[in-house]
Protein: 2-polyprenyl-6-methoxyphenol hydroxylase-like FAD-dependent oxidoreductase
Amino acid sequence: MPAAVVIGAGIGGLSAGIALRRAGWDVTVLERAERLKPVGSGLAIAANALRALDTLGLGDRVRALSRVQGRLGIRRPDGRWLAHTTVDRAQRKFDDLVVLLARATLVDLLAETLGADALRLGVTVTGVDAATGVVRTDGGEHAADLVVAADGIRSATRRALFPGHPGPVYAGVTAWRGMVPWDGGPLPSTETWGRGRVFGAHLLAGDVVYFYATDLSPEGAVHGDEREELLRRFGGWHEPIPSLLAAVRPERIVRNDVHAFATPLPAYHRGRVALLGDAAHPMTPNLGQGACQAIEDAVVLAHAVGEGLAHAVGEGPAHAAGEGGGLAAYSAARLERTSAIMRRSTAVCRATKLRNPVAVSLREAGMALGTRLSSDLMLRSMREVLEWTPPRRAASGRGPAARA
Structure:
């Protein structure tokens, strides 16, 4: 049985481990943390990622764990809608939902599906030999036919494989995230755009609101009290923003500067090593596609190396996965798509950073006009992202089409 070592037990790494196990690989996932403690609060799983999860047998379980909202869109700080649509429209257009859930919920589900026998916690990777597939750790070595580096935006594996690449750069904004109990009834999923500032709020299962906010900030700025800082910046915006900020516990607020690639990598593999998720294509969060693209990566990778094995009779799994085999096909399949999504996300980030009153007014007028001319403007703008389907998608017994 071919052996794969996955570095990192985030959403991308766990998804890759599941996909490879289902494809017949002996998988070991290495994670330096002593326990899985997902960074972040909530996330959206869009139709493209749900289709990928369907191939892992998890799509319906994620749909069942998620909160599906009716109306979603973009508002002004005074509450007026600039652009909006509904989940029902999205489902009709893309034959699936856009679902919201806690990041920890998804990580727990993925870890459970992977199996405790494949997961090694508290293991620090100290080096990877791309030519031989040997992974060195603080506890010894692991030999692999395939190494999957899902070690995040600061990936040490990526730096070793592509030492000349500039790496992620600061996007010019800092981001806050938090979770707040909610007993106020239905809540539309919204982003509110102001002058250089964004505030998003989404109701999750269990009557909890996940919120996030971004604002222009010098890189590395330090704030004494993050809740007071948020109230100072957003406390005068429309409800429920002030109420959410007043209710959140300060220790539940997470803040980090936003970094992303300005320059794509030339490939997502070297030798026997594949890069996946934020290790391969870190992007700003503006399209909500970071986790979704990592899940796509996982199922495409498993398919590509599986195809490589099928066509490498007598050559062995390492040859099938490595240079000229399945990993070359993986890079070819993922590089153009993820680079385009990175660029689009960065463009949206730039639009949210506008502070000049004239520029902001023009931005708002354009969004409002576009919505009046087409009620499906938001959906059409995301068509190329959301209509993606995984390779050899099996419709039987999976996804909404099979349930109809």
